[in-house]
Design a protein that fits this description.
5 strands; binds tetrahydrodeoxyuridine
Length: about 140
């Protein structure tokens, strides 16, 4: 098994719990313009889970993705080092974090496993596989 695959590993029950929290947040999405509801959940070392949903706006470009909503909420709570993330989109849709959210999450843990909903349930991919050579001002943080 490659080093990256090992780092992306997460116990199945943890991945399921995190995806269930992402689904709960998804149910609270405010997405009247796209109709595409997304939920995200972040796990922290102390066991805390912080979730978020996408929040759209009539001025479309102001819309906020679920992942960034979860991460900014966590920072405001004093939680800055997520150990895993989960993202839930509509059923049957592969819903990985968008490029902006990959960069945004990598600021806080560039190597964490990301549980991504897909047609079969979910798959787990390390953030540094989703965002190879991501930009960082901290040497070695994302590579
Ligand atoms: N969206 C997210 O919440 N997360 C992503 O990573 C991709 C896209 C939202 C933004 C917008 O409200 C809707 O999905 C459709 O693009």
């Amino acid at each position: 098994m490659s080093e990256k695959k090992e780092r992306a590993a997460l116990p199945a029950e943890t991945a399921e719990m995190l995806m269930a929290e992402a689904e709960k947040a998804r149910a609270r999405a405010y997405a009247p313009y796209s109709g595409f509801s997304v939920g995200a959940a972040l796990l922290f070392e102390d066991g805390s889970v912080v979730s978020g949903c996408n929040v759209e706006n009539a001025s479309y470009s102001l819309s906020i993705c679920a992942e960034r909503n979860a991460m900014t909420t966590a920072v405001a709570m004093g939680l800055t080092r997520p150990t895993a993330a989960a993202v839930a989109g509509p059923d049957g849709v592969f819903c990985p974090p968008c490029g902006s959210c990959r960069q945004f999450l990598a600021e806080f843990n560039g190597a964490m496993p990301v549980v991504i909903k897909d047609a079969r349930g979910f798959r787990i991919i390390a953030l540094d596989e989703l965002l190879p050579s991501g930009f960082s001002l901290k040497d070695g943080e994302t590579e």
